[in-house]
């Protein structure tokens, strides 16, 4: 496995404003798509479990924008997981415009912190990560040495 999990998105009019630039919030939405598709591929059992007691919540997210992206552009969203500690994981996203004539420039960069939690009555309680999630994070080069483990 490479050090990133890559997905591609072709921009449609639905992703853009009147000037045909991508809405800033769509970059954050694409972070969620990338994370979910990563789980679909490498941790499908955990993904199934998310509708029960254990779940993942986003505790922080951000995105920096460098270049405009418009209708019909194809963007590669590259997910990396540098670290998983306790019940938290850091997910990083690099957004590259697929343009071989221009060396696929970086158009945005983002990050999420997600927490693995268990629903307990009316509160959420930190809980361990399933081994399949940690294996996948390790395959991307992530440090999982301080993670809560099943």
Automatic annotation (TrEMBL):
It holds the Pfam family 4HBT_2. Gene3D superfamilies: Hotdog Thioesterase. InterPro entries: HotDog_dom_sf. It comes from the Bacteria. This is Enediyne biosynthesis thioesterase.
